[in-house]
Amino acid sequence: LGHPLGEETDLCCLITENEARRVENWIAEADGEIMLRTERKGAVLGPAVVRGAAEASKLMREEAFGPVVAITPVRD
Known about the structure:
alpha+beta, about 80 residues
């Protein structure tokens, strides 16, 4: 985590705290197994990995524009 223009920065804050809350809510509403998640601090939302999110969830149907990835298991 760091300044958006810092070369050593891999992850920085979202554009506003409301956007960070929105992505956080999408993660919660996805109704999947949260495999990785960190707490939000203001506009900073750490990376999240959600497995098996509901197909109808916003996380699966919209672009989150945040540090989250949804993994969908398949049989083969």
